[in-house]
Amino acid sequence: MNNQTNSVVLSKDMLDLEEDEDLEVFSKKILSTDEDPAPNSPSSMVNQYQLDEDEQQSDSTKDLFVTVDSPESHVTAIETFIMYRVITQTTRSEFDSCEYEVLRRYQDFVWLRSKLEETHPTLIVHPLPEKFVMKGMVERFNDDFIETRKKALHRFLNKIAGHPILSFNQHFKLFLTAQDLSTHKKQGPGFLSRMGDTVRSVASSVWGIKSRPEEFTLMQEYVENFGCKISSVDKVTQRIIKEQREYLDELKQYGPLYSQWAEVEEDLHDPLQLVANCVDQCSKETEKQIQQLSDVMVPAFHEYVLCTEVIKNVMKRRDNIQAYFETKNEALASKKADQDVGHLEKEVEALADRMETANNALKGDWVNWQNSMRADLKSAFISTAEKNVECYEKCLAVWESFLLSQRRDPIELQDEDALN
């Protein structure tokens, strides 16, 4: 990797500058921390950028706020797990109180998501973070893993809280308000009901559908392409982080070498020590960039890698609904000569209504998901761009300062030292 950009010596053109005064003015502007960036500086231009108004949800229009925090480890005789505090604040009339505080573990989030998918099979329910340890995590419950999961669970609940349909789901309300969720988790469809759904799903996948509406075919193609691209970006980003960490380790050893050299080279002591300081500052900025990628970019990319799998499953459920309707409709057509087909006609009518409802739900949620995805990724890009500009400006400033110090008259420097 060529990450050494942060700390490389300035280009030849820069070295050929003869106007020390211009250089000094430039360095002072960059080094200044008490004033705002110059109007035309990169950081200023980035800060002026705002997301489109229609992609931002003002807090003044929200009526449901959910926070996940305070993870605590619990150890029993048979397992170890983490409990998270979930705080809800709302002005909705269907809630008995305006604020709730409950404790939830990961399995509770899994239960909630399964209930949302069960109730709304063709809505896109945001994914949960994976249950198992992510690559690179040494311990399942180390601090980094817990913090990463806490943030992902917080985003999951807030995606639901901001959804125009899912946020009004009764299971979601129970999750946010019930102190003891175990009694509610035991209530669910019976074995025969679940068996019937499974049989219909398997049968539908065998039958297939005769003609999927073109809009859903295009949707599926988009998801396939999007999934391939963002999965590749996710993998490369994680590889870049790994390489940057290796580079950072080398950089942290690089600076002290100059300090050690300065101790035995009297005539070069000052410039060598300044180089060591510059390298040290650049290593700190590189560490911040790596942290930005780890905390912002990777979670954003990986979250939407998981989203593509969610949407593929939603598409399958929609296809199953259509396939089951088509099968029953064919059965009805073959029995038209029979007298007793009233019950089958009603079933076909109900299935037609269900298919139309499922199609409309998915079409509406697809638009909502695309807008959310674009806003999330754009926010991650802007945040990372701001951090990169900030880090590069600081690195540039320290090297400019070094360059300026080496161009000044040695007699002038000696006078300053005498005054000090």
In short:
It is built from 12 helices and 3 strands; from the N terminus they run αααβββααααααααα. It has 420 residues and is mainly α. Strands 1-2-3 form a 3-stranded antiparallel sheet.
The tally of beta strands, per DSSP, is 3
What fraction, in percent, of the residue positions are helical? 55-70%
Rounded radius of gyration (Å)? 30 Å
Q: Note the overall shape.
A: elongated
How does the SSE layout of this entry go?
Elements: H1 12-15, H2 20-31, H3 42-48, E1 64-75, E2 80-90, E3 99-105, H4 106-119, H5 143-161, H6 170-177, H7 182-186, H8 191-207, H9 214-264, H10 269-334, H11 342-407, H12 410-419
Antiparallel strand pairs: 1-2, 2-3
Helix pairs in contact: 2-11, 3-11, 8-10, 9-10, 10-11
Describe this structure in words.
Helix 3 (42-48) runs antiparallel to helix 11, helix 8 (191-207) packs across helix 10 (269-334) and helix 10 runs antiparallel to helix 11 (342-407). The two termini are 43 Å apart. The protein is elongated, with a radius of gyration of 30 Å. Mean pLDDT is 81; it is low at 1-57, 134-138 and 190-196. The protein has a 3-stranded antiparallel sheet. The chain is mainly α. It has 12 helices and 3 strands, in the order αααβββααααααααα. Strand 1 (64-75) and strand 2 (80-90) form a beta hairpin.
